[in-house]
């Protein structure tokens, strides 16, 4: 408790206008996490199953309004929520394929009120078709199931016959996602480049405080924000490990940053923050050579070394051909440096990147657009994101 109090006080000094933001969400999140830990300790439910049960309470039914028609459907047997704008237009519409966050494991999160509202805003303000993917989740399903579900929906939607059905312009399609959804969006965009069956190309991608690498969980952003609200390092480590397995040995190795086997040492050049971070984000941190872990973990759970799970691990040649990219990062976020390093790597190979760094935000800021945490900060960031889409899509 004392550690949390110290970190909140420090954060409030830096973000004085969002006291209620920190107070409400940290108290709420902390209570949920404590409940999950207690239930798991008693042997009643898995930690992540408790989180899934609680978030399912916030499920929002597919209710249409005067601006948007909302329906639940399936694309090639994968559930998705479809938002169709009611505005009449003579031409074809734009489209945004949105991938929700939640650590690859939060139940029905795409139908939670903040995500539902963000999709409605996007559809209405852009007069665009929005597809929100409901992929299968950990701990019942592990990587690569989540990636495969999203890829299935995207590939299905990009068929010309489907685009004609929904009145979508094949030259104006975006893939977007936040947090774990940003991870999936980035990975799918990369994999589409090598899929000869997909003829329609994405025009843009938008990655909102994305999780992009599994190798170094001791980046400056992880150290600076280890105990910050919403996504402390311990929770992010658990999200990563649960994405691949319920075996606690991987979680323990990741927590100490000793999970990468020596035979995979060549991958560290893709996440070497001493080369990829601007000086302002390095602060007083000193880069240290990796400490390698057991080869057995890499053999048992190769997913954490797979670029489909960690998009920063691809060779530079695999970045060529990616669409114009928008990356949003938050200063007080363990995932901050993942996004910034991806910006650096994309720019190095000539990809056009727009980087919005929000100095006064923490992870998950786009979730704070509905009661009881309906905050000006959340609306400001949402407006920046939607305005960028409107200009570039």
UniProtKB/TrEMBL annotation:
Decide whether keyword NADP is in the record: no
What InterPro entries does the annotation carry?
Answer: AB_hydrolase_3 (IPR013094), AB_hydrolase_fold (IPR029058), Arylacetamide_deacetylase (IPR017157), GDXG_lipolytic_enzyme (IPR050300), Lipase_GDXG_put_SER_AS (IPR033140)
Q: Which GO terms describe its cellular component?
A: membrane
Keyword list (alphabetical) reads: Disulfide bond, Hydrolase
Example of a GO MF term: carboxylic ester hydrolase activity
Ranges of residues in domain Alpha/beta hydrolase fold-3: 96-256, 304-366
Positions of the catalytic residues:
179, 333, 363
Query: What family is this protein classified in?
Result: Belongs to the 'GDXG' lipolytic enzyme family.
| Listed name of the protein | Alpha/beta hydrolase fold-3 domain-containing protein
In the record, what lineage is assigned to the organism producing the protein? Answer: Eukaryota, Metazoa, Chordata, Craniata, Vertebrata
């Amino acid at each position: 408790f004392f550690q949390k109090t110290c970190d909140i006080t420090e954060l409030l000094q830096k973000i004085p206008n969002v006291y209620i933001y920190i107070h409400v969400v940290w108290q709420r999140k902390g209570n949920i996490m404590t409940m999950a830990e207690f239930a798991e300790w008693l042997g009643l439910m898995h930690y992540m199953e408790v989180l899934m049960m609680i978030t399912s309470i916030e499920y929002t039914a597919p209710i249409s309004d005067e601006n948007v028609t909302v329906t639940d459907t399936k694309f090639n047997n994968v559930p998705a929520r479809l938002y169709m704008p009611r505005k009449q237009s003579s031409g074809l519409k734009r489209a945004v394929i949105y991938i929700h966050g939640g650590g690859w494991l939060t139940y029905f999160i795409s139908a939670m009120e903040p995500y539902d509202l963000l999709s409605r805003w996007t559809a209405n303000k852009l007069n665009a078709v929005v597809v929100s993917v409901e992929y299968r989740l950990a701990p019942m399903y592990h990587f690569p199931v989540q990636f495969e579900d999203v890829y299935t929906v995207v590939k299905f939607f990009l068929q010309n016959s489907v685009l004609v059905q929904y009145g979508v312009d094949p030259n104006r399609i975006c893939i977007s996602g936040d947090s774990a959804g940003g991870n999936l969006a980035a990975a799918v965009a990369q994999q589409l480049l090598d899929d000869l069956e997909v003829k329609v190309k994405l025009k843009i991608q938008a990655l909102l405080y994305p999780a992009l690498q599994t190798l170094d969980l001791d980046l400056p952003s992880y150290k600076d924000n280890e105990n910050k609200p919403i996504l402390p390092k311990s929770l992010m480590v658990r999200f990563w490990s649960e994405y691949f397995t319920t075996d606690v040995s991987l979680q323990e190795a990741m927590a100490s940053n000793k999970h990468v086997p020596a035979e995979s040492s060549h991958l560290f050049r893709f996440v070497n923050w001493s080369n990829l971070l601007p000086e302002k984000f390095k602060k007083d941190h000193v880069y240290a050579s990796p400490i390698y872990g057991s080869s057995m973990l890499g053999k048992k759970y190769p997913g954490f070394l797979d670029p489909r799970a960690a998009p920063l691990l691809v060779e530079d040649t695999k970045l060529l051909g990616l669409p114009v990219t928008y990356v949003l990062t938050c200063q007080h976020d363990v995932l901050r440096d993942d996004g910034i390093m991806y910006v650096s790597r994309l720019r190095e190979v000539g990809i056009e990147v727009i980087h919005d760094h929000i100095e006064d935000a923490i992870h998950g800021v786009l979730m704070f657009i509905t009661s009881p945490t309906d905050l000006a900060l959340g609306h400001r960031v949402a407006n920046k994101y939607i305005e960028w889409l409107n200009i570039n899509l």
